[in-house]
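hiii, so i know i said id send this last week but things got crazy w the move. better late than never?? heres the sequnce for the chain we talked about at the cafe, plus the structure i predicted for it. fair warning i was half asleep when i ran it
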Amino acid sequence: MDMGEILRNSLLYPLQNIKALVIFIVLGVIAGISGGTTTIDFILDFLGINNIIANESGILGMLLFIIISLLIVGYMLDVVKWSIYRRSDSPGIDIKRQFSNALKFLVVEIVYLFVPFVVFIILSIFLARWIVSLIGIVLFIIFALAELMARCRLAKNDSLSEALAINEAMGDIFKIGLIKIIFTVVLAFIMAFVLFIVSDSISDYNSVIGGIVLGVLSVYIIFFYNRATGLLYSNI
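okay and structure toks below
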């Protein structure tokens, strides 16, 4: 598929799977509200305003936010898998497997962040600061793109070892095309930035409505991004 087809398909995909979109919009709204409540409670506690009810709701809000976020991550890995095989329907909900894959994904995130960080620290001992900074930026970009490929490998095979095959993940970048991947990532970033501006503006007037808008638009963008990622990977 060329980029035009991938973008059109990805933008329409959430609307063609309304049931799944609505379910995860509801979850996104709950996560957005609980996450916002948790932040407020944390600030109150930090300022020394000890409120037992606020602290308890903050803990519950944090747990709820984490659980829902993991469920969304696990489901979106399946969206990537469906997209790799170019299926137009939405995945079913398999809480046990999707929750397990979400935890595997956290491991992948940590590894792909940890490796360039360690290299950066080691190089900083021997090289000038500006050289290390330049190398560090390049390393983090490369590993961020490799992590995207690792996500696809995890989604396709449900295998942590496949996702942690760093050399193969980097090889996938060039099989797909560096420019295509960067274009998709930048487009998703721009959409997310616009989303933040809109939701933040609404939150200035009403934090609850702002949280709802944030949840709705976030889920739509997440669907779009993971669909586009899977379709890109389907070209291998």
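btw Confidence is low (pLDDT under 50) at residues 37-50. thought thatd interest u
miss u guys!!
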